[in-house]
Amino acid sequence: MLGRGLLGIEDLDRDDIEKILDTAMKMKEIGERDVKKVPTLRGRTIINLFFEPSTRTRTSFEIAGKRLSADVVNFSPSSSSLTKSESILDTAKTLDAMDPDAVVIRHKVAGVPKRIADELNAPVINAGDGAHEHPTQALLDMMTVLEEKGRLDGLTVTIIGDIAHSRVARSNIYGFRKMGAEVRVAGPPTMLPSHVETLGVKAFTSLREALDGADVVMALRIQTERLSGAAFPTVREYSSTFGLDRQKMRFAKDDAIVMHPGPVNRGVELSHDLADRRPSVILDQVRNGVALRMAVLYLLAGRRKPAV
Amino acid sequence: MAKILIRGGRVLDPASGRDEVADVLLANGVVEAVGAQLSAPDAELIDATGCWVTPGFIDLHTHLREPGQEYKEDIASGGRSAAAGGFTSIACMANTNPVNDDPSVTDYILERARQDSPVRVYPVAAATKGLAGEVMTEMVALAKAGAVAFSDDGKTIMDSGMQRRVLEYSKLTGKPVMVHAEDRCLVNDGVVNEGPVSTKLGLPGNPAIAEMVHVARDIQLAELTGAHLHVAHVSTAGAVVLIREAKNRGVHVTAEVSPHHLTLTDEATLGFSTNAKMAPPLRSALDVAACVGGLADGTLDAIATDHAPHAVHEKDVEFTAAPPGILGFETALPVVLGLVRSKSLTPLQLIASLTLNPARVLGLPQGRLEAGAPGDVVVIEPERKWIYDPAKGFSKSRNSPWAGQEMQGRVLSTIVRGRLVYHADRGVLFP
Amino acid sequence: MANDDPGSAEHARATSDAAAQSESLLLDDAAIRRALMRIAHEIIEKNEDLSRLYLVGIPNGGVPLSRQLQRNLKEIAGVDSLIGVLDTTLYRDDLVSSGARPRLRRTEMPSAVDERIVILVDDVASTGRTIRAAMDALMDFGRPRAVQVAALVDRGHRELPIKIDYVGKNVPTQHGDRVQMRGPEDALEVVLVKGGSTAGAAEPRAQRAASERST
Fold this sequence. Notes:
The structure holds 3 protein chains of 3 kinds.
Chain A: H1 14-28, E1 45-50, H2 55-67, E2 71-75, H3 88-96, E3 102-107, H4 112-119, E4 124-129, H5 135-149, E5 156-160, H6 167-178, E6 182-186, E7 202-204, H7 207-211, E8 216-219, H8 224-227, H9 235-242, H10 246-249, E9 257-259, H11 272-276, H12 282-300
Parallel strand pairs in A: 1-2, 1-3, 3-4, 5-6, 5-8, 6-7, 8-9
Helix pairs in contact in A: 1-5, 1-12, 2-12, 5-6, 5-12
Chain B: E1 4-13, E2 18-27, E3 30-35, E4 44-47, E5 52-55, E6 57-62, H1 75-84, E7 87-92, H2 103-116, E8 120-125, H3 139-145, E9 149-151, H4 160-170, E10 177-179, H5 184-187, E11 192-193, H6 196-201, E12 205-206, H7 208-225, E13 229-231, H8 237-249, E14 253-257, H9 259-263, H10 285-296, E15 302-303, H11 312-315, H12 329-341, H13 347-354, H14 356-362, E16 377-387, E17 406-416, E18 419-423, E19 427-428
Parallel strand pairs in B: 1-4, 1-5, 6-7, 7-8, 8-9, 9-10, 10-13, 11-12, 13-14, 14-15
Antiparallel strand pairs in B: 1-2, 2-3, 5-16, 16-17, 17-18, 18-19
Helix pairs in contact in B: 2-3, 4-7, 7-8, 8-10
Chain C: H1 6-22, E1 23-27, H2 29-46, E2 53-57, H3 62-77, E3 82-85, E4 117-125, H4 129-141, E5 146-154, E6 166-170, E7 178-182, E8 189-193, H5 199-202, H6 205-211
Parallel strand pairs in C: 2-3, 2-4, 4-5, 5-6
Antiparallel strand pairs in C: 1-8, 7-8
């Protein structure tokens, strides 16, 4: 049930996802016009409250808001309650007192957008909380697959990478499964979370098996800072075992597409060749990201808590 | 001091096995008599019809935050909260500021308790200076000053060589070493039990194996040294098995478990409530069942609350930043009574784990309800329903997962040293 | 609600009769075709330069109507007109703060509108707000040489100074009434559904927007 805000795919049902994707498809046309603007959210204020830096997602939300004629404000405070003088809740409440029509939040700790949403009048959109959820990313991924394949039901989607620390993986798992796709996750054992099958996926440590028959192959970004010596010995070994190139893609279906939330570590998750041309649809993902975020803002901005 | 006659209650005394309706007469700070139809015309009368009458509860593991963090609790407020929960003796951990690693701090705590606490307070001193795990404390001097046990609780001694020396040296005092058993390297940055719940929440997991590895290590060291090892807040099925086997082998190990680890699972964190964040974390349903079983068969000796107050502003932050721990005194009884209601424990077994057994761990004379025993008695209304509102409680803090919930079972009166210190309708009466 | 309960069957019949009574047919398929043929003639009559026509249908009703007009213009005068679809939802002036946002429809404007004579095509015109929104949208696409409006039915109650250049049929209505075009593209019809007795005039605008697009 699409409530006042969008905190995660877990809260959505199939109808909600279809409605958002349908709206996003319609929004896409605006990006193809000369004058890429409609007056729908004119006079509305959207605040991007990004405790964790992110140029891509923030810019995507900013463009989305501006194409709908909204006033978009970026606010990037320090992320920890421990290091800054103003607590996270106080920051959020202060902004809420300025009556925004939507607050888009990203934080490196799971659960923060939900806590903030409980206190705010404005609707809250989760732009990524720790390893928990990144709903707009999963929605734009589903939108891209839907455009390429014409359906989501019955597809096989393989997600490769540091699943344990990935909010993109979790949101996509929820989303694709709700829409009837089969989801597989693959990576070294140290990167597969405990009890991952309880999310309804099959886990693989063999890339070849994970790719066999896949329609969609999604490579996740490896945090190279986190990688060396920790979950994986070297970048070199990761890329030779789990990095994708054209040769390994032969194990997937002939018409399989390659996706990546970006930014790509060339030569690590994807070969240079795969990153730049078909079957990779990475730039379509980015384009769809703006349309998708326009759809989410259109559907949610300005919907306040009913006065009690 | 006036005499107190508690009339017509169901007397539960695990030491003697007594479970019958009887009267209890207290005079001169001790239990004078327990029997049928006692007469004491000049005594203050407590009508205990329909109630249980038990020895006062003994809590092996509490955090009173004084000295140093009095904004969230102090010995006065902690003592009052304990009295309201039926606890007449409480052992307080050393992770204060300054740490209780010196007899002067132990003295301070005992002095504050003498003046401000309605219940008996027993300081647990640090095992290493500053809880840093590097240099042992002067255990003999601390024991002389009144420390009843040694513990680096809050931290763990990661250096196994150090842990061996601590256990070995503690034998000079005859006091137990209470360990917070968790391998910090396996815990890493984990904040929630590693399992389906942590995977779903996307929060770093704290695996059960972290506890098991250290329990195994410490049991081996206890066996080698012959010291008295006491495992604090057991939370995993694996640890219960290890402790059971060790006891069967004759190792001098005792253990405690908290009310929350007996009743709540990691699912309580779905929703990111920091009032469900504690160390060790809430675990799976299988772990909870194993802990209940361990309590029932005596593997786990005592129930200890690990009462850990934290201020609202400290807890209302992002999950990873919130300090772990919850209040325990005032909810312990109704929560653990649930184990009797579900037939996991008999009333005598439950009361033993709250009284006789913890007394034995510390070598205290309390925990008994017989003539000559210390005058610490609790009168309980086991069926009474009430709503728990931490704001109306006696602790300075509010961090409890049971806030707003209906509880069944409450303390009617608490008597310490033969004096009524708490009554449900009248509040804390002393000091 | 058993099938063999005579009471309930009677009740069902009675309600459907009542529904039939409050609905009347304004235009059947044949009448619509005649109206569209007449409008095509009027378009030809009014516009000197027929080489620049761009028929833009407003979903949902305007779409099949614009297609028929395109065929009619070709048939009558060999005119090749461009055709497009323009959803006006995002330009509405009544997207309420607390209600659910209306579903978007497809927009397809395959050609530029600059220097074209755009004829907006809608099924039912009333307040003029949809046409106003459509003109705003059109301006974002470029600068038409002229904008004209064709509506199959004009039911009056204009709230803005908007004129309809080509009208299929003028139908006097009350506020609570609804005028709807429905049916498959080869069998369209327009019906008038009478509103409640007193409710009509007092129905708040927001509620009307939810139940029928304010046109």
